[in-house]
Specification:
By secondary structure, this protein is an alpha+beta fold. The protein has 3 domains: 113 residues, Phosphorylase Kinase, domain 1; 113 residues; 137 residues, no CATH class. It has 13 helices and 12 strands. The strands form 4 sheets. The chain has a 5-stranded antiparallel sheet, sandwiched between helices. The protein has a 3-stranded antiparallel sheet with strand order 6-10-11. Helix 5 packs across helix 10. It starts with 12 loop residues before the first helix and ends with a helix. The model has no long low-confidence stretch (mean pLDDT 94). InterPro entries: AGP_Transferase, Aminoglycoside_PTrfase, Kinase-like_dom_sf. It comes from Trichoderma aggressivum f. europaeum. It holds the Pfam family APH. This is Aminoglycoside phosphotransferase domain-containing protein.
């Protein structure tokens, strides 16, 4: 599997300037590339002279005394339309319903019918630096403050309950409503073309939604993974398990406790490369990269374990993440917010087994067609089967 960065578009400054003319916005004072860890967007800083910015963007604060800066994020072809719409809808809802520091959306296009030939979002530039950039020089008291603020962020996001599992989109009146779900583990367009027959698409290999409940969401995943197993030669030795997967779907409705959960909006990738702060005060000034956020069952709020990772690829990074998670848990308990932790745990052995089964099934379907991690597949299948046994399958 290549990196998503391999498919990011190279865009010239002239093309970016043509976009601003197309949008009937004033010409930028300057256009520069922003070096970031972003994998799904090419990112540019767009600067405007003060007198131009005051007229065109009167509600935006200046990044410095000389200019107003915007961020242009140009999407690759990974997940056409749904990723851009989901991100803009999530950011819009957060602006309207929370106090979280989320950038204002100035313009966006979820089509390729623009001078860039790519989807894009044009956003307010938030002040500060990412916590990952300064992590190694953060004083302990500022790190404690950041952890305390992360409790506030999680509390606000978990405060609003939704109905079912979904992504977000806009209705005809511009209201934010449930839409197709989106996951970073989806089969994305470049890999669909590379590894699958021409008959397949992003839509045929991934779930969609919205889903009324947790078990409907799980059942939909089983069905797309069964489709993949039937189709791809590398998964041929998994076909003997297809009848058991049918039974898995059929028994989900027999256990009402499997749907005993709240549903709330989760970022799903809240690591410190996505958190901005003021270096001198430790005040969190921005939360970035909402493209894979969605409405999830509580146990799925941190699906890949990225929460509080310091953004570093070092030997001790995972141990440090776990240390910070302990500090976060202690902070929640001290503030009387232990429920923020408790409700994200499976409510029963059965619910945990349901999720573990789908996790390992997904892992097999994800790596086998790519020819990866073959040595791990037998143990993953064994775990899948052990979880199915817990469910009586």
């Amino acid at each position: 599997m290549g990196s998503p960065k391999d498919h990011l578009p190279p865009i010239s400054e002239d093309t970016i300037r043509a976009l601003f003319a197309f949008l009937d916005l004033p010409p930028p004072q300057s256009v520069s590339t922003l070096s970031t860890t972003a994998e799904y967007h090419s990112i540019y800083v767009i600067s405007f002279a003060p007198e131009v910015a005051d007229a065109a963007f009167p509600t935006l604060s200046r990044s410095n005394k000389d200019c107003v800066e915007l961020i242009l994020r140009i999407s690759g072809p990974h997940l056409p339309r749904i990723k851009t719409i989901n991100e803009v809808a999530a950011m819009t809802w957060l602006q309207q319903n929370t106090r979280l520091p989320v950038a204002k959306v100035i313009r966006y296009d979820a089509s390729t019918n623009n001078p860039l030939g790519h989807e894009f979002t044009l956003l307010q530039r938030l002040p500060g630096v990412t916590v990952s950039e300064i992590y190694d020089r953060l004083p302990p008291q500022l790190l404690d403050s950041i952890i305390n603020q992360m409790v506030d962020i999680v509390q606000q996001m978990h405060a609003v309950s939704w109905d079912g599992v979904s992504g977000l989109q806009f209705d005809h009146d511009g209201n934010v409503v449930p839409g197709p779900i989106i996951e970073e583990t989806f089969w994305q367009q470049p890999d669909v073309v590379k590894y699958w027959p021409e008959s397949e698409s992003v839509q045929s290999l991934n779930i969609s939604g919205p889903y009324n409940c947790y078990t409907d969401y799980i059942a939909a995943m089983v069905r797309v993974y069964q489709h993949a197993i039937r189709l791809h030669p590398s998964l041929a030795d998994m076909r003997d398990i297809l009848p058991r997967l049918d039974l898995f779907v059929n028994i989900l409705s027999e256990f009402p406790e499997l749907n005993k959960t709240r549903y709330f909006l989760a970022h799903k990738d809240l690591h410190f490369a996505n958190i901005m702060c003021d270096e001198s005060s430790g005040l969190i000034t921005g939360i970035l990269d909402w493209e894979f956020s969605s409405i999830v069952p509580a146990p799925r709020w941190n699906p890949v374990g990225a929460f509080l990772w310091n953004g570093q690829y070092s030997e001790g990074a995972m141990a440090e993440r776990d240390r910070l998670k302990t500090l976060f848990t202690e902070c929640c308990a001290a503030r009387g917010l232990k429920s923020l932790i408790d409700e994200t745990k499976p409510n029963s052995v059965m619910q945990g087994a349901m999720q573990e089964a789908i996790n390992y099934l997904r892992a097999i379907v994800e790596v086998r067609p790519r020819g990866q991690k073959e040595e791990r597949v037998p143990s993953w299948r064994s775990t899948l089967e052990s979880q199915l046994k817990i469910l009586g399958v």
